[in-house]
Write a structure and sequence with these properties.
By secondary structure, this protein is α+β, with helices and mostly antiparallel strands. The chain has two domains: about 130 residues, no CATH class; about 70 residues, no CATH class. About 25% of the residues lie in helices and about 20% in strands. The protein has four helices and nine strands, in the order ββββαβββαββαα. A hairpin with a 3-residue loop joins β3 and β4.
C-alpha cells in the first residue's frame, strides 16, 4: 500500500492466481495475450464479465515504436482470463482520481503517462510526452520558504469577481462568452470511455477543491457564492 492507498499485486512463482472477484472496472492490468507465452499487454479494465474486458495500450510508430496510446476511436478490447494477469493495480475508491494517482498507478505498471501519450519508464528520456500543466511541479516538493515574501496567501488576496462588460471590448466580450459557454457545457459532458472519464474526474475534483476555497474567501469578504458564468 502506498500514499494513494493503491492495492498492487505481482504474480510470483508458485503464487495462486487472483479470482475474478478481485478485479473491477478502472483497474490496470498487465497480462499474457496467450497464457504463459511470454508476450504481455497492458490496459485498463472496462468491464468484468465471464472474463476481464480490457481496453489496451497500442504501440505507435513514432520514436521507433517507443510511444504508446489508447485507441479511443475504435476502442479495441481484449477478453482476459484472470490466470493471464501478471500485474494488477487498483486505487482505493475513497481516494479522488487525481493526476498524481493516475501517474503513480501507471508508474507501477512500468509506464510514464502524459495526457494521451505513454512510454515505458526506460524510454522517458527519448520520448517527449504531452505533459499536463501540473506536471511541472511535484505534489511532494517541500516549501523551503524562499518565496514567502513574494507570495500572498489566498485568504489575504481579493475574492474573484466576474468581468465587468462595461470594461471589455467587443472582441474580449466574445472570448469571455465562449469561455463561459464551455464552462457551462462541462457539467453536461458525458465521457465516452475510461480515458475521458479519468480526465473529467480529475478536473471535477480540482474544481470542487478550489471552488470551495473561493466560496470561503468570498464569505469572509461579505460576498455571495459563485454561480455558473452567464453570457455578457
Amino acid at each position: 500500500m502506498n500514499k494513494y492507498k493503491m492495492k498492487t499485486w505481482i504474480k510470483t512463482a508458485g503464487q495462486s492466481n487472483q479470482p475474478l472477484s478481485a478485479f473491477q472496472p478502472g483497474d490496470l492490468v498487465n497480462y499474457w495475450l496467450v497464457p504463459f507465452n511470454g508476450t504481455t499487454q497492458v490496459g485498463e479494465i472496462v468491464a468484468v464479465e465471464e472474463k476481464l474486458v480490457v481496453h489496451y495500450l497500442q504501440r505507435q510508430r513514432e520514436y521507433g515504436g517507443k510511444l504508446w496510446r489508447f485507441d479511443d476511436v475504435n476502442y479495441p478490447e481484449h477478453e482476459v482470463d484472470p490466470i493471464c494477469v501478471v500485474r494488477h493495480v487498483q486505487h482505493a475508491r475513497d481516494v479522488p482520481l487525481t493526476r498524481q494517482v493516475v501517474k503513480e498507478a501507471w508508474d507501477f505498471m512500468g509506464y510514464v503517462v502524459g495526457v494521451e501519450d505513454y512510454c515505458l519508464k526506460a524510454d522517458e528520456d527519448v520520448v517527449p510526452l504531452d505533459m499536463g500543466a501540473d506536471d511541472s511541479e511535484s505534489e511532494e516538493e517541500e516549501d523551503d520558504g524562499e518565496m514567502d515574501d513574494f507570495i500572498v496567501p489566498d485568504e489575504e488576496g481579493e475574492a474573484f469577481c466576474p468581468p465587468n462588460p462595461d470594461h471589455l471590448s467587443e472582441e474580449q466580450r466574445k472570448w469571455v462568452n465562449v469561455t463561459h459557454s464551455a464552462v457551462r457545457g462541462w457539467d453536461n459532458w458525458a465521457p465516452a470511455n475510461p480515458s475521458q472519464q479519468a480526465v473529467k474526474s480529475f478536473v471535477d475534483n480540482m474544481d470542487g477543491k478550489y471552488h470551495h476555497r473561493e466560496d470561503e474567501r468570498r464569505f469572509q469578504s461579505g460576498l455571495s457564492g459563485l454561480d455558473k458564468p452567464q453570457d455578457l
